[in-house]
Design goal:
It is a single chain. With about 250 residues, the chain is of the alpha/beta class. The protein has one domain: P-loop containing nucleotide triphosphate hydrolases (Rossmann fold, 3-Layer(aba) Sandwich), CATH 3.40.50. A six-stranded mixed sheet has the order 6-7-8-3-9-10, sandwiched between helices. Strand 9 and strand 10 form a beta hairpin. The chain is globular, with a radius of gyration of 18 Å. It starts with a helix and ends in a 7-residue tail after the last strand. Pfam families: ABC_tran.
């Protein structure tokens, strides 16, 4: 029994192979919410390790704790107990300002809804994080143009979101997430608002960016057919992270 438990834990943590490096670690992560006498446990002792340049999917039904976990990994919320360790830094021990700086410079976020600014062009939306960080306008737009080429939207850079298709808007959102050259991108249902053709296209794009830019992606999705295309899959079930059932589609 102990040998089985040890093997299971090792598979969850994805022990380092020679030359690999830990990018992200979660250790006994718990998150609870208290309302009066009612306590709701959303995450229960979540433990796993992610390597640099890895592509990992977390699958699970609505309400299983996937999005809550993503918020903790990105430093957007604090756990009730446990640790999130990003490149040897304990997020819970950083000041609010230090966590914000880490999010702005080392992490990227992609959501189900693109959250693009409607009055700005694709180029301006992508450049916005750099401008907020203090970059000069010319330098920010040069970098934004480069990223738009990488996501195949160089010919749509001067269009506002209203003039773009759903798939194109999500590509702009991906470009915005990548403009700071993050080591890790956290994606919460990035294809949940798209048809199958555009969903396939977005997942192909994530794979290409992983290969050519070395960006790691942790993708929360309920779509098992898309999750299978990533190198590793874990499942959230009732707040527990576990190896998934056989992914049959």
């Amino acid at each position: 029994m102990n040998d089985c438990l040890s093997q299971y834990k090792n598979e969850l943590q994805c022990e380092s192979s020679p030359g690999s490096e830990n990018l992200l670690q979660c250790e006994s992560l718990c998150k609870s919410y208290q309302e009066g006498s009612l306590r709701t446990d959303v995450l229960r002792n979540v433990t796993f390790t992610m390597q640099t340049k890895e592509m990992m999917a977390i699958v699970g039904s609505s309400g299983s704790g996937k999005s809550t976990l993503l918020h903790l990994l990105g430093g957007l919320d604090s756990p009730t107990s446990g640790e999130v360790i990003y490149q040897n830094r304990f997020l819970n021990r950083l000041s609010c300002r230090a966590r914000a700086e880490l999010r702005n410079t080392e992490l990227g976020f992609i959501y189900q809804f693109h959250h693009l600014l409607p009055d700005f062009t694709a180029l301006e939306n992508v450049a916005m994080p750099l401008l907020i960080a203090g970059s000069k306008k010319a330098a920010a737009q040069d970098k934004a143009s480069e990223i738009l080429v990488a996501v195949g939207l160089e010919k749509r850079s001067q269009h506002r979101p209203s003039a773009l298709s759903g798939g194109e808007r999500q590509r702009v959102a991906i470009a915005r997430a990548l403009v700071n050259s993050p080591s890790l991108v956290l994606a919460d249902e990035p294809t949940g608002n798209l048809d199958q053709y555009n969903a396939d296209s977005i997942f192909n794009l994530l794979g290409e960016l992983n290969v050519h830019q070395g960006t790691a992606f942790l993708v929360v999705t309920h779509d098992l057919s898309l999750a299978k295309r990533l190198s590793r899959q874990l499942e959230m079930r009732d707040g527990h992270l576990q190896l998934p059932l056989i992914l049959e589609v």
